[in-house]
Design a protein that fits this description.
Bound molecules: 5-hydroxymethyl-3,4-dihydroxypiperidine
CATH superfamily: Glycosidases
CATH architecture: Alpha-Beta Barrel
Largest sheet: 8 strands, parallel, barrel
Helix content: 25-40%
Number of helices: 16
Structural class: alpha/beta
Radius of gyration: 20 Å
Length: 456
Amino acid sequence: MNDISPIALRGSFPADFVFGVATSSWQIEGESQSRGESIWDRFAKIPGAIVDGSTGDPACDHINRLDEDVALIENLGVGAYRFSVSWPRFMPDGRGAVSADGAGFYDRLIDSLLERGIQPSMTCYHWDLPQVLQDKGGWLNPDMGRWFADYAHALGERYGDRVSMVATLNEPWVSAYLGYAAGVHAPGEVKSAHALEVAYRLMVASGLGIRALRDSGVTNPGLVLNLTTVRLDQPGAEAAREHIDLLHNVFFTDLLAGRGVPEKLIANTEAITDWSFVTDEGLDIAAEPISWLGVNYYTPLRVGRPADTQSDAVGQSLAAFPGVPAATTRPKPPFTTMGWEVDPSGLTATLRDTARALPEVPLWVTENGAAYADHVVDGEVYDPDRVSYLRGHLQAAAEAIAEGVDLRGYFCWSLLDNLEWAEGRTQTFGIVHVDPQTMERIPKASYEFYRSVVTA
Ligand code: IFM
């Protein structure tokens, strides 16, 4: 079968569909000495926590290469750029005073995007919590929601009139379960009861953040979740499949829809927690209406019967699913280097299911992309696997629209080869190669492919 042409692919989306590209602060900025400490700076100091010993410096040295990076975004031809604000750069003490330098950096970023006709899409929190707040208990502290709302309000006051979309949080599932159950992300705790509590408190914080953003004049606040379709791979794993789906998807969409914490999840986890931290007021706040929902999709989850060997796919350890009955996650080839199964139909299914769960909410694909091992040959990077991944997933997004899903835009993850959290520099998701030593940027073949689609 011939690959669909860029023109035909572009033509399968509405004319006003927004194509963008995404990054996040800790993964690209560098210059950690010019801001407050984040939980990822502290976590990176633990021997072995980050596989190759990477730290937040120099990351992609984006702070010093802003003009070059904005030029790459402009040349890509996208209509929007999704970035996150580093809370410890904007507000080094976590609360109170705003750093003039830190805030000024995002002023410059936003203004230079606008000068080029690119819509800034801002995320308030993409995992780099100020360490000073972690020292006060982090997301387990009942006051954190209020502190987050104050921070979001300050961001709204400063940038609200210039950014087209604002997300409160990026992927609370990851913060809660990789950070507090599997312990492979900052702050590196392994305590299932805390993971469930943090997931809930993050959703309450997001609701408070939505209110604070609106109060500051932001008209388009939303939230970004990593949702995915959870497939039964073998008979006998039905209960595990359902439990993983509850933790990964239904918990979040039910809270947003005002349906509360799913009864089945409460029953499944009764040996872990009594959920006494949930209050009617908290549920009401978590259900604060959002103007849009971002869906980050990379791979489906496939669940099978228990086996001697567990999958080593990044983020798919069963330790990340408190209360799950014995099972295995069983991704099938083809894989990316994260060990993630490549399955574009999973994106269509995820968008379809999310639209059903939250029928009134416009959806965006806020992240989608793939890590592959790249090679620079004669100053060029030829990455056909990533091109094929992007092509397939763009077609899958268009398919969801054809089925009636209200999908408004798609952001490719990621602009740059960056710090892939606990995987350090070993996993490269960029459509632009970044030399780890020289920081030289080389647009890959996938950059040219994506440009040919978005500008077709
Ligand atoms: O790099 C991350 C990003 O920070 C959040 N979503 C998933 C990406 C790939 O793992």
